[in-house]
Amino acid sequence: MKIVGKSVPHESARGHVTGEALYTDDLLLRFPGALHAWPVVAPHAHALVRALDPSAALSEPGVVTILTGDDVPGEGDTGANRHDEPLFPAEVTYHSQPVAWVLGETLDAAQRGARRVSVEYEPLAAILTIDDAILAGSFHSPPLRMARGDVSVIESSQLSFEGELRIGGQEHFYLETQCAIAWLDESGGIAAHSSTQHPAETQEVIARVLGIPRNRVTVECLRMGGAFGGKEVQANPWAAIAALGASKTGRPVRVRLTRALDFALTGKRHPFQVRYAAGFTRDGQLEGVRIALYSDGGWSLDLSEPVLSRAMFHCDNAYLLPAAELTGLICRTHKTSQTAFRGFGGPQGMLAIEEILDQAARRLGLRPELVRERNFYREGDTTHYGQPVKDAGRIETIWRRLMESSRFAGRRNEVDEWNTRHPHLKRGLAITPVKFGISFTAAFFNQGAALVLIYRDGSVQVNHGGTEMGQGLHTKIRQIAAESLGLDPESVRVMSTRTDKIPNTSATAASAGTDLNGAAVADACSTLRSRLTDVAASLFGCDSAAVRFSEGLVFREGEAERAISFAKVCNTAYLQRVPLFAQGYYRTPGIQYNPQTGRGTPFHYFAYGAAVSEVEVDGFTGDYRLLRTDILEDVGDSVSPMVDRGQIEGGFIQGVGWLTLEELIWDAQGRLATAGASTYKLPSWTEVPDTFEVDFMPRAAEAGTIYGSKAVGEPPLMLAISVREAIRDAISAFGTGGPVELESPATPERVFFAVQRARAERELQINTAEADETVAGLLKEAQPR
Ligand code: MTE
Ligand code: MOS
Questions:
Q1: What is the mean pLDDT of residues 74-81?
Q2: Residue 773: is its pLDDT beyond 60?
């Protein structure tokens, strides 16, 4: 029986549906007497804190204490890389930033108390847009650069043009908002449950704030109700407040952000502004690009540097850039600190090149799919940062297969024909590829570790460094462990993630959770299996090479009928004093990158995919319907096809939300005006395409990965670019087929105005044609006979 590669339900699927799966805040029941924390938030985007008087709050019934900078025994800063995130700021740098926290016997008491803390502010001017930041020279870091070839070719190209694209951010909208519960353990150290993608870093930040060594802090994450990058570093401050509160009062402290607070306080996907110049040959061959990326980093640095560099690594998407000059700058604004979000800058980088290719195609009167195809990487090509594009041929293979299975050519004609009959509705069709680099670009993060325990009854506990956020990591790990040990998945239990089981873990991010931790678990299992093989060989009196493990049984090859149970082998091993636990470790081989030269091999491999989408746009409203999407994704040899399918479908729809619905609006005071589901439009069931075909590339085993599988967590999000391009294709059909300016997200409002512009162009063309005719007629009449 093969367990790896089998479609099994998510290990917590039943619990997710019944409500029995516990999340951090559910654990509050285990902490009677826990205090509740609520922040005192600043009503300015930028201001100095002149004075803070908690006396009225302290007299409020149920208020226990208030946390300010005076309570911090260690360093009052939770910044992950640069220490630039004061927990109790003297200078407020984004609207609603907490300046103090009130602890109450009840949440209500804490909230009442927070309202009665009197704070005196001196408001200052705030920078709220990328444009203002550029004008003010407000940046977090010096520019990042990557370059290759001679970009002066742009100016001498047959087609040369410039443009700008604004790309909106995105709220993570994980269903479970940020949450942590901390308490004093018996040793006087701190223990915490935290909804965090990176328990080791949450531990580090708690230790930093309390000024104690990390061995006195234990952080546990049972599971998250979604994270999407939003809990990669931004789970830390809330855990730090809970820990500080517990250490001050000696009582458990719970911090849970409400939806509105989570919206107001936590970072989002980075909005970007892209300025570019590009040169093409007449037949659509890209010759050179100059791209400047400006990201809106918000108030602190957070992960903005690696996000920006990943954007720059993905300005090629699936295309060869013969000459490229890329620069990137992180704008410092008085807004939430933008952070990791599924794709981690990759989506913004890819959107830039897809924009450029579509603009070129429509300027040249060529089909966008033709221009895309013409510029694909071929075997032997290297990226603009010098990495060979391994398996580049897969791009074209996927493309052709998908063109065929989606009946692209036939539907192209049908759409064109349909459009001639419908003046107020237009359909659009587009196909776009994805090539996404897998590995953390900071090489040291690319390690995974595991601790596997076997009990005498043959049951197994697996500990590893990854966290479960709904993506199915634990399901895959369970399959990998069961496969490696020849057990049913039911005999394997994957434990919650704890810093006292595996130290110094990486964030579960970069889609590498299974690659890193799965390989580490397989390593530990293989150690155990070889020990058990020797024990079994002595029981059978055979050579170790002849011992087989399958379905909870151990036997000598060819003698399955004389099999003994795995449990019996384990108990025998114990009696023979053979250890039944082992560590496992994995580090990704062969990756390196030098940011100084902008050269290297930052990625272990690339994940490939492509999508075809067809939409129908209503010219009266700008509203659109997604009629059909076909996806072909390269997941290698899938460890868990049902989980992977879920990741592809979910990632795609999340991308559709980012590109077409979800719009973050900050008002003139720097307050997030779209801070709830009533004003922030999320994709839902109605946005799922009427026809949705998802398929895996066959025979796609990847060499040098766990069971030949590939990462799947983030890459499918970028397949949603096909929807944006299909919408643009439909808009273009309202006009003359020429270029279409479209900011992102392509909300109905933006689409409506783009349709208006396209129509105006067509009018102009018709009028010009009529005028030409009239002039020609007059000239004819004026001819001397
Ligand atoms: N899927 C679900 N259901 N919930 C999530 O929070 N996060 C995504 C992706 N898929 C996420 C998800 C992100 S941002 C990443 S990096 C990966 O899962 C992380 O998990 P993996 O490395 O195990 O794929
Ligand atoms: Mo994912 S954005 O790498 O957490």
A1: 95
A2: yes
What DSSP character marks residue 502? Answer: S
Q: At 782, is the pLDDT very low, low, confident or very high (cuts 50, 70, 90)? A: low
What is the arithmetic mean of pLDDT over 230-235?
98
CA distance 194 to 224: 9
Average pLDDT score over residue span 719-744: 97
Sheet with 553-556, edge to edge strand ranges: 547-550, 553-556, 564-565
Answer yes or no: is the C-beta of 469 below 6 A from any ligand 1 atom. Answer: yes
Helix axes 236-249, 199-210, angle to 10 degrees: 40
pTM: 0.97
Q: How far is the CA of 254 from the centre of ligand 1 (A)?
A: 25
Distance CA 75, CA 471 (A): 34
User: Atom of ligand 2 at shortest distance to CA of 227?
Assistant: 4
Handedness of CA 654, 658, 661, 666 (dihedral sign): positive
C-alpha distance from residue 699 to each of 64, 404, 626, 634 (Å): 62, 18, 30, 9
Contacts of 148 by beta carbon, 8 Å cutoff, 6+ apart: 321, 323, 324, 384, 385, 386
470 C-alpha to ligand 1 centroid (Å):
7
State how far the Cα of 437 lies from the Cα of 111, in Å rounded to an integer: 45
Please report the atom of ligand 1 found closest to the CA of residue 343.
14
Give the pLDDT of residue 785.
45
Phi, psi of 202, rounded to the nearest 5 degrees? -60, -40
Q: Which atom of ligand 1 is nearest to the CA of 712?
A: 24
Q: Dihedrals φ, ψ of 165, to 5°?
A: -135, 130
CA gap 91, 125 in Å, rounded: 12
Q: What is the C-alpha to C-alpha distance for residues 521 and 516, in angstroms, rounded to an integer? A: 9
Helix, coil or strand: residue 671:
coil
Give pLDDT tens digits for 280-301: 999 999 999 999 999 999 999 9
SS3 state at 207: helix
Residues 471-478 have a mean pLDDT of 98
- Testing ligand 2's pocket by substitution, the residue of 232, 313, 469, 603 carrying the most ligand atoms inside 8 A of its CB is 232
**Other C-beta atoms within 10 Å of 8: how many?**
19
Mean pLDDT of the chain: 97
Phi then psi dihedrals of residue 720, to 5 deg: -70, -15
Cβ of residue 473 lying under 6 Å from some atom of ligand 1: yes
Read off the pLDDT of each residue in 302-320 and give the average, rounded to a whole number. Answer: 98
Q: What pLDDT shows up at residue 313?
A: 98
Tell me the best of 11, 196, 198, 471 to mutate to test the pocket of ligand 1, counting ligand atoms within 8 Å of each CB and taking the most.
471
* 3-state class percentages of the chain: helix first, strand second, coil last, to nearest 5: 35, 25, 40
Pocket residues for ligand 2 (CB within 6 Å)? 197, 229, 232, 340-342, 344, 509-510, 714
- 193 - beta bridge partners? 181, 220
Catalytic annotation, residues: 714
Q: Which residues have a Cβ under 8 Å from the Cβ of 44 and sit 6 or more positions away?
A: 92, 95, 121, 123, 124, 126, 669, 670
Q: Output the CA 344–ligand 2 centroid distance in Å.
A: 6
Using a 10 angstrom Cβ sphere, with 0-12 exposed, 13-18 middle and 19 or more buried, the burial of residue 59 is: exposed
Alpha carbons 294 and 144: distance in angstroms, whole number? 11
DSSP symbol at 516? I
Predicted confidence band of residue 78 (pLDDT cuts 50, 70, 90): very high
How far, rounded to the nearest angstrom, does the alpha carbon of residue 243 sit from its chain's CA centroid?
28
Q: Which of 342, 514, 658 to mutate to test the pocket of ligand 2 (most atoms within 8 A of CB)?
A: 342
192-218 per-position pLDDT tens digit:
999 999 999 999 999 999 999 999 999
Place of tokens 């390690």: 447
Contact 474, 439 (CB under 8 A): no
Q: How far is the CA of 538 from the centre of ligand 1 (A)?
A: 44
User: In which band, very low, low, confident or very high, does the pLDDT at 556 lie, cut at 50, 70 and 90?
Assistant: very high
The per-residue pLDDT for 781 is 66
Q: How many CB atoms lie within 10 A of CB 620?
A: 9
